[in-house]
Design brief:
The protein has 495 residues and is an alpha/beta fold. It folds into 3 domains: 3-97, MurE/MurF, N-terminal domain (Udp-n-acetylmuramoylalanyl-d-glutamate--2,6- Diaminopimelate Ligase, Chain: A, domain 1, 3-Layer(aba) Sandwich); 105-337, UDP-N-acetylmuramoyl-L-alanine:D-glutamate ligase (3-Layer(aba) Sandwich), CATH 3.40.1190; 346-494, Protein-Tyrosine Phosphatase, Chain A, CATH 3.90.190.20. It has helices at 3-9, 52-57, 92-104, 120-133, 163-175, 187-191, 213-216, 219-233, 248-260, 308-321, 328-332, 365-375, 397-408, 424-432, 444-453, 483-494, and strands spanning 24-26, 36-39, 62-66, 76-79, 82-89, 110-115, 138-142, 145-148, 180-184, 202-205, 239-243, 264-269, 275-282, 287-293, 296-297, 301-303, 346-350, 356-360, 383-387, 411-414, 439-440, 460-464, 471-474, 477-480. α8 runs parallel beside α9, α12 (365-375) runs parallel beside α13 (397-408) and α13 crosses α14. It is globular and about 80 Å long. It starts with a helix and ends with a helix. Bound molecules: ligand UAG, adenosine-5'-triphosphate, 2,6-diaminopimelic acid and magnesium ion. Adenosine-5'-triphosphate binds at residues 116, 118-122, 143, 159, 184, 206-207, 309, 312-313, 344, 360-362, 366-367, 370-371, 467.
């Protein structure tokens, strides 16, 4: 594509003397080659503008950077005999995402983006499963990676990949005939405009509680980043699905956007107008669910997974799934066929004495509270929790999680969970400050072993925080560690 044509798609006109052919775009100088546009972004650690000379020397056709008031920029820059055009724009990250999408090619016809503090991965997985149960080629993309009917290279470990990877992945899915995609929209991804080139057709919001304040600083800024999905990315008239039981402030803000932008609003939950949970009665494996669809009570169904929050996520997915209201009941009737999401309230061991252990990805105060409350009815004996908190992440979560564990579990073991660059003992101490009765066992395997060894008939053990993760990150190194396989192996040894 010619540069002038690319600029034209953004409503810009080219005043340059020549019009290079553009083959790619990137925000990483290490990926720059001939015919590439290098977008110099300010990051959290570095300023991409430092890498402009390098990008030019490597053959960049053009450089895009943020315009700053009062600054005058040259129209081109030469390094090592190669010249690149210089373009200054108010919003280079948005330009990057939208150009990457144009260069990558067509995207799947149905793309649902899911945001919220907790439940994004689960909802995306359930939505992919529902599409597949309807014999549609489908994919989900997020913390659990890319899961689809077609085989594509694995993605980097972010929840929402960078804009270029995202555009290329969506185009590859479309080329393989996948037309239904469920995408996780993280607050970092939304804030950094990673999704601005995605042709989103539906959006969902699960809930908003405390997380990532290390990055967003205030809950208001965190909410604002998430609202961007509904305010800017979802086109007018698009489908918006909300869990009606989220905090009132977020719900009000979303309803206001939905009205103003004429979104097709569906709400699910205890007070949902589209799907209302009338009753959820826990059973050994899941729950008996009575639902109302648009006010009409449906025959009860068995939802096969434990935890009311899992049913809420599944309803969010169901309401994202149908186009025509006539299909709604058929979609809801697929819920009994859903499979558990890896590392989400996943039963991993049953001891001969009848005690059992679950692994869950709860790494926020709200998630820990929900999963402990959800598992309580499954424990005729005691409820025991093993958990920690991630290093280099929102420190304010730690005392809150300690308090919740102390309040809702009968026994608490505080251990390590990805201390990263921080001192693990300090992280544990910050949790223990509000859980003084808790045991402290830094070594996660020993903590799990101790908890398993102490289980009696009817007890339930929750190992929280790492879910599907397969490593323990300590000082920049990832050591193999999988709560699920370790717990299952240790439980077998005990049997
Ligand atoms: C805090 C954060 O979101 N960081 C992301 C951000 O990096 P950054 O702002 O730190 O970038 P930087 O290192 O300062 O560099 C600035 C610019 O210079 C460029 N650069 C840098 C070096 C070089 O040699 N040449 C060059 O051009 C970089 O490509 C970048 O454009 O942009 C990078 C490129 O897209 C991401 O890889 C990186 O994710 C880091 C690895 C990360 O850990 N992110 C986490 C916090 C994250 O995004 N998490 C969310 C949500 C998780 C959840 O909800 O639970 C996710 O979506 O995964
Ligand atoms: N609807 C919900 N309400 C409250 N807690 C939930 C909900 N759904 C999931 N959780 C909790 O959050 C954990 C993570 O769930 P999930 O991976 O689906 O969320 P996520 O939003 O994708 O998280 P991340 O931000 O890490 O990607 C679960 O293991 C569970 O403890
Ligand atoms: N996406 C989340 C995952 C946290 C998982 C937990 N195990 C931790 O390391 O804190 C984050 O990066 O904050
Ligand atoms: Mg996720």
């Amino acid at each position: 594509m010619k540069l002038s044509s690319l600029l034209h798609h953004h409503g810009l006109t080219s005043n340059f003397a020549h019009d290079p052919e553009i083959s790619s775009i990137t925000a990483d100088s290490r990926n720059v080659g001939t015919g590439c546009i290098f977008v110099a972004l300010k990051g959290t650690k570095q300023d991409g503008r430092h890498f402009i000379p390098l990008a030019v020397a490597q053959g960049a056709a053009a450089i895009v950077q943020a315009e700053e008031a009062g600054q005058h920029y040259p129209s081109q820059q030469t390094e090592n005999g190669h010249t690149a055009l210089i373009i200054t724009l108010p919003d280079p990250a948005r330009f990057l995402a939208r150009s990457a999408a144009l260069l990558a090619g067509p995207q799947p016809e149905h793309i649902a983006a899911i945001t919220g503090t907790n439940g994004k991965s689960s909802t995306a997985d359930f939505l992919r499963q529902l599409h597949q149960l309807r014999h549609e080629k489908a994919a989900s993309l997020g913390t659990l990676g890319l899961i689809s009917d077609v085989s594509l290279p694995p993605l980097p470990s972010l929840t929402t990949p960078d804009a270029v990877t995202l555009a290329n992945t969506l185009a590859a899915l479309k080329a393989h005939g996948v037309n239904h995609v469920a995408l996780e929209a993280s607050s970092h991804g939304l804030q950094q405009h990673r999704l601005d080139g995605v042709a989103i057709t539906a959006a969902a919001f699960s809930n908003l509680t405390r997380d990532h304040l290390d990055y967003h600083h205030t809950l208001e800024a965190y909410r604002h980043a998430k609202l961007h999905l509904f305010e800017k990315l979802l086109p007018e008239g698009g489908l918006a699905v909300l869990n009606s039981d989220m905090d009132g402030e977020s719900y009000q803000a979303l309803c206001e956007i939905a009205t103003r932008r004429k979104l097709n609003l569906r709400t699910v939950g205890a007070t949902g107008k589209t799907i209302r949970i009338v009753e959820a009665i826990p059973t050994p494996q899941g729950m008996d669910l009575t639902l109302q669809l648009h006010g009409r009570t449906l025959p009860s169904l068995h939802f096969p997974l434990p935890g009311r929050f899992q049913a809420e996520n599944a309803l969010l997915a169901a309401a994202l799934c149908w186009d025509d209201d006539k299909e709604a009941e058929a979609i809801i009737n697929l819920l009994p066929q859903l499979k558990g999401v890896p590392g989400r309230c996943e039963p991993v061991a049953h001891l001969p004495n009848g005690a059992c252990a679950y692994v869950d990805y709860a790494h926020t105060p709200d998630a820990l509270e929900h999963v402990l409350l959800s598992l309580r009815p499954h424990a005729s004996g005691r409820l025991i929790v093993v958990f920690g908190a991630g290093g280099d992440r929102d420190k304010g979560k730690r005392p809150l999680m300690g308090q919740i564990a102390a309040h809702l579990a009968d026994e608490v073991i505080v251990t390590d969970d990805n201390p990263r660059s921080e001192d693990p003992a300090t992280i544990r101490a910050e949790i223990l400050a509000t859980a003084p009765q808790a045991k402290e066992i830094g070594d996660r395997k020993k903590a799990i072993q101790t908890a398993l060894a102490g289980l009696k008939e009817g007890d339930v053990l929750l190992i929280a925080g790492k879910g599907h993760e397969t490593g323990q990150i300590i000082k920049g190194e990832t050591h193999p560690f999988d709560d699920r396989t370790i717990t299952a192996t240790l439980a077998k040894e005990l049997a």
